[in-house]
């Protein structure tokens, strides 16, 4: 039996475990990336390990999230990250250089390599033929120290692309179609691998759009083969020497298969408040809009921007619409400037934003009250935009641009004949905004600079013999990390200050939760299915840790968040019988006896609800390594003595 693209890369990097579906495997990590919203804590964790210098082939620290500097906090974090990077052997992408995933694709991604990043959209690298996985900051810190990264060996889903996209239908419509069919839970425990004759019709930036938003499927990652289109992109970036052809063997076997006929796709839109709530643009055409935002790590490439500029050329943004555009990198912005496309955007009345994440993570451009905002982003969770009652729709740059002109949601096929958009044979290469680290000889002279907002990692403790605790919060299905730990310009600057940011934990759901949890001392959270979907932000585990949460009991977990809970020493448990979820209420007194022994050697533990009198069997779905991590109180404690 042959191997898929994903299996070939994983097998080459296998360090621990059995190459068997469903078992835990440890893989060697070649590259890491961080961004500033998660990076400060990742580097605090790395510093706590006492390792003098990173041991990866390439580690890069990006500044792209917290670029709105309305106080000293963000600037202090950037200074801290820059100083750690210089001292510890990490390249530092300075503010203004661009969004981490776009820049990494352009300048650092290598086919066949493994990459983990403290951002859930790290799978963007799959567009280059990498195994690129979003992870918590502590996992990234461990990998930087030379440690192994662990995942459950995933199922491989074959998505066969047939034919060619019709004019004005784009890569964004491909991933929206996949989401429509598979849902935000459909990719859990799986790698999505693209193949078929349609693959060769897609450029690397288009492939990266698809793998980027594959994160919304809950998938471990997504990957394309590395072929002549990959070489074409790398040659244009003057990096052709890193090219490696990677394709699936003809007799490779897949666990699931999906076929998408590209020529039958039409423009799609994800409606509020979930990326899988997908309809055709035709179904909603004519809907009045208030705002259009173009950019994000999903759709901010040069190819996307060229199409937007063409549509805006000679037009004026509708008077009732605010249009903002954020090119994904300095390289993209520079090429738009030299090619004249930037002038087309400005002339049309677009508001040009810096090359950063911006509105996608609630950092500015919040819509008006009850506003309808069309965005080329990857997430439209409730409140993520900064306006709780806003209606956020996700769509392609082509649909966004024409709608900004008409003032209503408009099918881009109304533009008529589409010209051929060709990427340049050579991109402008200028890496002057990437600061290289100090040499090993000079590193000792570099001081790590910490501002007053930067606090230490929360205190952890080994798992007790038993837990007698209160249920401090009960929530429903599809709770996102934006519910648990909101983003936005007011909260993001506190990412390096867990005591302060914890005051906003679950504020979207229950503003009194932080105060209640602290007053209880220790407590538990009860949740529904797909708990923790969305971002890789480990703060959604660290804030509950600080607030005294000892266990989270749900119907099912999203992959990254469950791993982050384990890393934080919070015990993740699932109901053996999902009907038991309905029998437990907030405020109930809960007992978990003989807990250490159950975690050490069992697969279940009995929950006793002293308030209602019911008992429920809970599953302990942890690997042997994860059990040890939980017993010791978290990954930092577990790792400190093992990596030297």
UniProtKB/TrEMBL annotation:
Domain named Aconitase/3-isopropylmalate dehydratase large subunit alpha/beta/alpha: residues: 7-407
PROSITE patterns: ACONITASE_1, ACONITASE_2
Similarity comment: Belongs to the aconitase/IPM isomerase family.
Keyword Iron-sulfur: yes
Parts of the chain that traverse the membrane: none
GO molecular function, one term: aconitate hydratase activity
E.C. number(s) listed in UniProt: 4.2.1.3
Assembly and oligomerization: Monomer.
One of the GO biological process terms: tricarboxylic acid cycle
InterPro entries: Acnase/IPM_dHydase_lsu_aba_1/3, Acoase/IPM_deHydtase_lsu_aba, Aconitase/3IPM_dehydase_swvl, Aconitase/IPM_isomerase, Aconitase_4Fe-4S_BS, Aconitase_4Fe-4S_dom, Aconitase_put, AconitaseA/IPMdHydase_ssu_swvl
Location of the Aconitase A/isopropylmalate dehydratase small subunit swivel domain: 524-578
Pfam families membership: Aconitase (PF00330), Aconitase_C (PF00694)
Cofactor(s) for this UniProt protein: [4Fe-4S] cluster
Enzyme class: lyase
The protein's name in its UniProt record: Aconitate hydratase
Keywords linked to the UniProt accession: Iron, Iron-sulfur, Lyase, Metal-binding
Gene Ontology CC terms: cytosol
């Amino acid at each position: 039996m042959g191997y898929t693209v994903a299996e070939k890369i994983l097998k080459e990097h296998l360090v621990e475990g059995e190459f068997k579906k469903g078992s835990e495997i440890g893989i060697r990590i070649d590259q890491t990336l961080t961004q500033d919203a998660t990076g400060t804590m990742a580097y605090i964790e790395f510093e706590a390990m006492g390792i003098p210098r990173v041991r990866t082939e390439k580690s890069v620290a990006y500044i792209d999230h917290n670029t709105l500097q309305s106080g000293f906090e963000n600037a202090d974090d950037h200074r801290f990250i820059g100083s750690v990077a210089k001292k510890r052997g990490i390249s530092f992408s300075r503010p203004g250089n661009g969004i981490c995933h776009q820049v990494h694709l352009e300048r650092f991604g290598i086919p066949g390599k493994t990459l983990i990043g403290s951002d859930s959209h790290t799978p963007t690298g799959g567009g280059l033929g990498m195994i690129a996985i979003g992870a918590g900051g502590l996992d990234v810190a461990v990998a930087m120290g030379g440690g192994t990264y662990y995942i459950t060996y995933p199922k491989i889903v074959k998505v066969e692309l047939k034919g060619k996209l019709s004019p004005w239908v784009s890569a964004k419509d491909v991933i929206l179609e996949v989401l429509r069919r598979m849902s935000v839970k459909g990719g859990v425990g799986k790698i999505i691998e693209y193949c078929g004759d349609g693959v060769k019709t897609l450029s690397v930036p288009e492939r990266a759009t698809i793998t980027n938003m594959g994160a919304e499927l809950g998938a471990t990652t997504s990957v394309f083969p590395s072929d002549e289109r990959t070489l074409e992109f790398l040659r244009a970036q003057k990096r052709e020497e890193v090219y490696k052809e990677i394709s699936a063997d003809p007799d490779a076997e897949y666990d699931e298969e999906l076929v998408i006929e590209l020529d039958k796709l039409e423009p799609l839109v994800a409606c509020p408040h979930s990326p899988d709530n997908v309809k055709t643009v035709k179904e909603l055409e004519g809907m009045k809009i208030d705002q259009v935002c173009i950019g994000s790590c999903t759709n901010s490439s040069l190819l996307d921007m060229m199409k937007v500029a063409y549509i805006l050329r000679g037009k004026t943004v509708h008077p009732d619409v605010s249009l903002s555009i954020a090119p994904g990198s300095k390289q993209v912005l520079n090429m738009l400037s030299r090619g004249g496309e930037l002038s087309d955007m400005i002339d049309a009345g677009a508001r040009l934003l810096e090359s950063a994440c911006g509105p996608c993570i609630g950092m500015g451009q919040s819509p008006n009250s009850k506003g309808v905002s069309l965005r080329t982003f990857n997430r439209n969770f409730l409140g993520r935009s900064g306006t709780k009652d806003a209606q956020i729709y996700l769509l392609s740059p082509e649909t966004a641009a024409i709608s900004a002109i008409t003032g209503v949601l408009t099918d881009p096929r109304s533009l008529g004949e589409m010209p051929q958009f060709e990427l340049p044979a050579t991109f402008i290469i200028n890496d002057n905004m990437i600061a290289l680290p100090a040499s090993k000889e000079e590193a000792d002279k570099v001081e790590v600079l910490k501002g007053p907002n930067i606090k230490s990692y929360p205190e952890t403790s080994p798992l007790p013999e038993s837990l007698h605790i209160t249920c401090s919060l009960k929530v429903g299905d599809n709770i996102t990390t934006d519910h648990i730990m909101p983003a936005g310009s007011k909260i993001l600057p506190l990412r390096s200050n867990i005591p302060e940011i914890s005051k906003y934990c679950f504020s979207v759901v229950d503003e009194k939760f932080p105060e209640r949890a602290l007053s209880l001392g220790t407590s538990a959270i009860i949740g529904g299915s797909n708990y923790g979907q969305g971002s890789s932000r480990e703060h959604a585990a660290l804030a509950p840790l600080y607030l005294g949460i000892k266990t989270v009991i749900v119907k099912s977990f999203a992959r990254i968040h469950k791993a982050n809970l384990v890393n934080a020493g919070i015990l993740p448990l699932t109901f053996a019988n999902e009907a038991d979820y309905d029998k437990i209420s907030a405020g109930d007194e809960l007992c978990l006896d003989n807990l250490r022994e159950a975690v050490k050697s069992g697969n279940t533990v009995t929950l006793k609800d002293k308030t209602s009198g019911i008992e429920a069997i809970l599953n302990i779905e942890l690997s042997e390594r994860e059990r040890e991590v939980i017993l010791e109180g978290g990954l930092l404690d577990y790792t400190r003595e093992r990596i030297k």
